[in-house]
Amino acid sequence: MNVIPLRQRSEDAYRPPDEGGELGLISLKWVFSFLLRRWMLIGAVAFLVAVACFSYFALQPSRYTATSLLMLQGDQERVLSPEQMVAGGATPNQQVADSQLEVLRSRMLAGRLVDDLNLIEDPEWNAALARRNAGRTSSGEVDPAVERQSVIGAAAAAIVVRRRGLTYAAEVSVTSESPERAAQMANRLVELFQLYQTESRIRGAERANDWLSHRLTELRRDVQEKEEIAEAYRARTGLITTEGSLLAEQQTTDLQAQVLEARADLAEKEARYFQVQQMTASGQSVDAIAGALQSNVITQLRSQEAEIARRQADFESRYGDAHPLVVNVRAEREDIRNQIDAEIRRVTGSLRSEVEVARARLRTLEDSMSVMRGELAGNNEEMVQLREYEREAAAARAVYEAFLQRFHEIADQGNIGAAPAELVSAASVPLDRSSPKLPMAFVIAIALGLGLGLAAGFLAEALDEGFSDTDDIERKLGVGALAMVPKLRRSELKQLPLASQTPAAYLMGRQVSAFTEACRVLRTSILFAAGKPKTEVVAITSALPDEGKTTMSICLARVSALSGQRVLLVDCDQRRRSVKEVLDFEPPVGLMQVLAGEVDWREATFLDDASGMHILPLSNAGFSPKDVFGSEEIDRLLAELREEFDLIVLDCAPVLAVADTRVIAAKSDCVAVVTRWQKTPIRAVRAALEHLQSAGAKIRGVVLNNVDRRMQGYYSYPMYEFRED
Fold first, then answer.
1. φ and ψ at 382, to 5 degrees?
2. pLDDT of amino acid 412
3. Average pLDDT of span 278-305
4. Confidence of residue 556 (pLDDT cuts 50, 70, 90)
5. Does the pLDDT at position 403 exceed 70?
6. Local structure of residue 533 (DSSP, 8 states)
7. Is the domain of 673 the same as that of 531?
8. Is 444 in contact with 191 (CB distance < 8 Å)?
9. What are the phi and psi torsion angles at 542 (to 5°)?
10. What is the extent of the structural domain holding 257?
11. Per the omega criterion (within 30 degrees of 0), is the bond before 179 cis?
12. Do residues 490 and 521 both lie within one domain?
């Protein structure tokens, strides 16, 4: 069976939803439903676009692409160092490589290629020439400069230059209708690029040489002027130099070294002298004093004394103290001791003399040092100025020498024959065409077709202001959906006799069908809504005409009658009077005559033999300008009808078209508003519900009519199938 709203409103009063509720969310269910609704539009647009796109690609002339590979070098506008000159170029950086790629892509290089290969005379590149050959234009209509620029633009568009990955290898590709021409253009473009880079390097070297020549002349003159100023000042102040420094400075340095040496010598001699004096005064041994004096004479005398002492001891032990040999040995030993004392006094005196001489020499050197410092202090101001002149001259000479060295380095750079960009692989004649590639064209055509088809579907969906499903109704209107009534296909209606090919007749002829089941769902939703009072009078209306509200009224009445209820269908649409037309009969009297008191309602009521329902139609007696539905007569009539019938269905006019509908709808137990699937504007239905609410009508819900059964979710139980008997 059809979808029945799962949530029933606690009140019949209409509550407008929030405006943000119309946006909703795109879900898989919505996408599938969208594809089912718009598959014909999407398929048609996709097919047409795919065919057109594929035909366009297939009709394009065959083109071939030839590619050459070259290795980029360093910036040739810069003057190279000797190492770079020997190696054949500098290693490029990112910016230099990108700059050279832009040169390869430039119109300047393309223009050289056009002129070199005379592409102006080739109809493939010169569209104007092709038109002249075809006889469509005369030869004097095109300006030669404009024609040349047009050919350059065509050639530049056929050239593709790109780096290979992160390396400094560049691919130069040229596409042409002729494979031989493509290879020729690719190789010649690389040659022209190399020639341009070589010319650029030569021009750079020439410009550098010219500038350096002028600069060297200026620097040479500046060095000479500064050195002349320094020498003139030196001669004027008498600041004589030897070996690069002032004579006074050299003398001061030498004196300072001599003073230091004299001080050290004096300190050494005073130390030895004081040591000997202290050892003598303290009575130390002769051996110690001899060691301090470092005297060979004392050392020899001490050796002789030791030998005599040995002999003395030997004689005394053998002959005694009074023996003449012992007396002679003692005298000899005493003489040796006297000689040692005399030598010590002599050496000590010598040391004292050396100390005095060292002191005198130190005083003399210090006096000379003081005199020389005075001279330097007197020349201090002149020295400061002289050094300033010398520094300026030295700085100017350093700059001059650096420029002179650079000038000699680049003097012959323009004659170096190394190519600025090395050709790694020349372009060969391509065997396979690069375009059009029909498999790729087919994929692109399909993808483009599907994309534009989906875009067309989404556009149609965006421009569609109608309702798609029950969720749409509840979200956008804030009321429940009573039923989704499917659209009857023409093939289904053709199964009935020609006179009965209407939805109302189809309901009777096909009792087990989706359409009939939807009408039963509508009856159940209206009559047995949870929490609602007993429903006896139901007003069926719509926001706009041609929504199917009369068909729904008749079908609801017939389904209820077939269910065993006593049902009366009342036609309340004075302007259309569609009930009698759908049921194909012409009543002599009707509702207007009953309300006017001309006839009793029983005399104006007709019986539908097919279903057993009763009908109170409108006759052709004319339109009444009176407010018949707001009178007491209609209240009395409805009260009498409630006593006789279980269900009274009021087929009312559209709410926005006729004001009477709001009056009669307020007198019913509930109101059902019929709207067409994906056709009735949301604003119209919302306005109709607001009008009904302001009139006091009890809105039961909305009936979604004419629904495409291919929409996803139409059946809540997929396993249920409707079969015809």
1. -65, -35
2. 58
3. 67
4. very high
5. yes
6. -
7. yes
8. no
9. -150, 170
10. 245-378
11. no
12. yes
Per the document, the length of the chain is 725
Q: CB burial class (10 A; 0-12, 13-18, 19+) of residue 146?
A: exposed
Question: Which secondary-structure segment (H or E) carries 46?
Answer: helix 28-58
Q: Provide the number of structural domains found in the chain.
A: 3
On whether both 520 and 615 belong to a single domain, the answer is yes
Distance in angstroms between the alpha carbons of the first and the last residue of the chain: 18
Pairwise CA distance, residues 311 & 298, whole Å: 20
d(CA 569, CA 556): 9
pLDDT class for 18, splitting at 50, 70, 90? low
Residue type, 46: A
pLDDT 10s digits, 37-85? 778 889 999 999 989 988 888 888 888 889 999 888 765 444 455 554 4
CA distance 325 to 323: 6
Question: For position 587, which CATH number holds?
Answer: 3.40.50.300
Please tell me what DSSP assigns to residue 414: G
How many angstroms separate the CA atoms of 1 and 614, rounded? 27
Containing 628, the helix (H) or strand (E) segment is none
pTM metric for this prediction: 0.48
Give the C-alpha separation, 321 to 701, whole Å. 167
Pick the closest to residue 656 from 543, 556, 568 (CA basis).
543
Per-residue pLDDT of 381-402, as tens digits, reads 667 777 787 788 888 888 878 8
Q: Of 704, 712, 654, 701, whose CA–CA distance to 677 is shortest?
A: 704
Q: What one-letter code names the amino acid at 126?
A: N
**Can you tell me which residue has the tokens 């190399």?**
194
